[in-house]
Amino acid sequence: RRSRQGGGMAVPLTDGERRKQISVRGIAGLGDVAEVRKSFNRHLHFTLVKDRNVATPRDYYFALAHTVRDHLVGRWIRTQQHYYERDPKRIYYLSLEFYMGRTLQNTMVNLGLQNACDEAIYQLGLDVEELEEIEEDAGLGNGGLGRLAACFLDSMATLGLAAYGYGIR
């Protein structure tokens, strides 16, 4: 635990000071097309270290996935912050498989980014549906049990429960 110096003695951080350290304020929203385009290009150049001359469709897919992930990170951090502050009981669901399917389009829709991403990718001369097809199904099972486990996790998330799924991978 970090502390601040107060008169030569270490003083524990106040709740407000601790919250400031893990605050997610200032993370840019990606709701508009220009911001999505900017983030996409930033990830293409700085995360994937590619330019338009050598980038493959798979590189474009990863640039889009990282762009969407940027918007998700703030929510993940706020969730962890909430868990830290409230210390809720947690549910751990064990299953040999979780069939989640493809997640990029689902995440864009759930975050309200689908239209902005579609338009930004179109303006960049790319086809968003083609990029979405590059995503592989998460190889965590494909049977009824895997789909059921994924539905349980979705339901628990919808209810706002602190739930985690554990499988063999």
TrEMBL record:
Keywords: Carbohydrate metabolism, Glycosyltransferase, Pyridoxal phosphate, Transferase. GO terms for molecular function: glycogen phosphorylase activity; pyridoxal phosphate binding. Its EC number is 2.4.1.1. It catalyses: [(1->4)-alpha-D-glucosyl](n) + phosphate = [(1->4)-alpha-D-glucosyl](n-1) + alpha-D-glucose 1-phosphate. It comes from the Eukaryota. Allosteric enzyme that catalyzes the rate-limiting step in glycogen catabolism, the phosphorolytic cleavage of glycogen to produce glucose-1-phosphate, and plays a central role in maintaining cellular and organismal glucose homeostasis. GO terms for cellular component: cytoplasm. InterPro entries: Glyco_trans_35. GO terms for biological process: glycogen catabolic process. Transmembrane segments: none annotated. Gene3D superfamilies: Glycogen Phosphorylase B (3.40.50.2000). Pfam families: Phosphorylase. The keyword Transferase applies. PANTHER family: GLYCOGEN PHOSPHORYLASE (PTHR11468), GLYCOGEN PHOSPHORYLASE, BRAIN FORM (PTHR11468:SF29). Its cofactor is pyridoxal 5'-phosphate. Belongs to the glycogen phosphorylase family. It comes from Hypotaenidia okinawae. This is Alpha-1,4 glucan phosphorylase. The keyword Cell division does not apply.
